[in-house]
Input
Amino acid sequence: MSEGFNNPDKIKDLKYGFDSFKNNKVLYGKKGRLPAMGWNSWNAFGSGNTEALTKDMVDKMIELGLDKLGYKYVVLDDGCYNSTRIDGHLASDPVKFPGGFKHISDYVHSKGLKFGMYNDIGSKLCSGLEVGTCGHEETDAKDYIKWDIDFIKVDNCYNVWDNATFSNPENARFTFAPNIKGIRFENNYYSFKEAAITGKRAFVENDYITGIGTFDGTGPDTTPLGDLSSELIFYVYAPEEGEYDLFVSYATGAAEGVGAWLQVAVGDNSEYFYDDFLPSTGNPKTFRQSAAIKIKLKEGANKIRLMNHRRQENTLLSYAKIKECFAKIAPKKDIVFSICEWGKTQPQNWGYKVGDSWRILNDITFQVGSDGDKGHASWEGAYTTSVTSQYNKAVIMDSFSGLDKGYNDPDMLMIGMDGLTDTMCRTHMTMWCMLNAPLMLGMDLRNVTKGDEVYSVISNEDVIALDQDSLGIQAKRIYTTKAVSPDTTYIRDNDRIDVLCKPLSDGSIALSFVNVSLGDRNDTLKIGLDLIKNYMAAKMADPAKFFNASSYEIFDVWSKEKKIITDKVFTSVPLKACDNLTFKITPMD
Output
C-alpha cells in the first residue's frame, strides 16, 4: 500500500476520493446478494479456536440442519494464524490448525458449507500477530484463493494511517487537518471568519478552526446520519484563468481533532492540488504561514476547499486494494467481503463501493467465550457492548442498506451466550432480521439441541425469511413512543417501544413492535395505513394492492397465530421487558 508504511498512497484516481462517495459506483465487484448467514468463531472461542473445534461446529451445523435454513458460512476469526509470516506468506498456527487452512477448507466444503477467513488492513491482527495484510495484499489474495475461501472478514486494528484500535494515537495526524486561522491569496488575507464550515465535525475555537476531518464512529456517541466530515470553504476571485499561489495560516497537532495532513481542492469533484503533511509547527496553537500551494483557478469566483478526508479515503483505499487483488487473480470467484472497521470511518458513506456489509460500531461483546465457557452478552451497555447499543444506531441507517449497496452490520448474534434471557434472544433475532443484518451465529453449537430454546430462536424460518427476503430492504422505524422523528432521530434512551416496518417481495409487510426497555410496557399502539403509506409506499412491492385491500391476514412470526382483520389498524398489546410482537401482514382480496 505504501513505501515502507511511511505515508498512505496518493489519491491519483478520483474514484477513491471523498467526492466519489455519493456516485453509487461499485468498485471491483457486483451487488445483489442477500445478507450472509453462518457461524463465526470469535464470540464462541475468541483466539482459542482450533481445527478440532471448527470441525465440531461444522458437524453440529449439519446435525442441527442449520445449513438447510441458510446458515452456510463457517468463518475462522482471529487466532488461527501462525504468529509470523513464513517466507512472506500467511500460515496456520501449527498447534491449533495442524492440518493447515486448505485442509479445513476442504472439510467445510465436503459438508456442503462455505469457508471464510479473517485478516486486518493494519500491520498486525487485533490479537497482535504480525500478519496483517497491509503491504501483502496480492500475496495474501493468492493464498486465500489457493485455500478456496468464500468469505473474508477484514478488521482495522493497528491501522498504519489512523488512530484505530491498538494503533498509535498520534496517527490522528494523518486524519485531521491542522488548525487553520485563514488563507492568503493575491496579497489579500481571508480570516476563518470569512469561511464557511461544512459538516458537523469542525468548529471555531478562539481565533481558529479546529476539528477539520471526520467523526470517529467506533463508539455510540455520534449519530450516523448527516454530514459527518467537515471542510473549510473560502470564496476568492481570480482576475483570469491560470495558476495561483495559496498560503495557509496553520498549526499542526497529532491528536483526535487536530492533525498535520491537509487537502486542498478547488470546486467539487476535482483533483487535490495538495494532499500531504504540512511541516510541523511544534504546537497546535503556534501558527505559521505555509509555503505556496499551487492551485488552478478559473476566471471569476472560485470555491477553495481546505479539508482532510483521509480517515475515510485511507480506509477505502486499504479495503479496495484487497478487493482489487481478488478481482485480478480470480475474477470469477465469488467471495463475500465483510468490512470490519467498527464504523470508525463512517463506512455507511463508502462501504458499498467494496463491501457486502460493514460493521457499524465496535464489538457487541468483549466477554467472548472459550471451550467450556459461553461468554457473556448484555441487553444494555454504556458503550457498544450490548444488543441495544448496536440496534439503536442500526435502526436509523436503512437509507444506506440494500441489494444495490450492501448491509449495515451490528455484529454477530449473541444468542446462546450467558446474560440474555429467552425473551431477549427472540427480540435480538427479530431486530437483526428486520435490520437485514448478516446472521452470523456466535455460540458454541455443541450446547444447542434440536427443540431447545436457543434452537427454536435461530431456526425460526418465518423470522429468517424477513432477513432473507429477496427485496433486500432494511426495515424503517416508522413510530417510537419517544415522540420524535422516528426514522432519523438517534435515540439511546431505551425506555420506549419502537415500531419497525419492512416491505416484503410478495407484497406483504412485516410490522414489529419492539419493547427496547428492561421494564414492562403497558402501551397499546395502533398503527394505521396512512402512517405505513407515508413511510413505506415507495419501497413496497405492490403498494396499490396492499393499501386497497379489504382485509388483511395477520401472522405472528413467533406464536404462529393467524387472524383476519378488516379495520385496517394494526394493534399491539402490552409488552414484557425486552419483548417483541412481530407480524407478517398480507393483503387479502
Remarks:
- The first helix runs from residue 42 to 45.
- The chain has a mean pLDDT of 96.
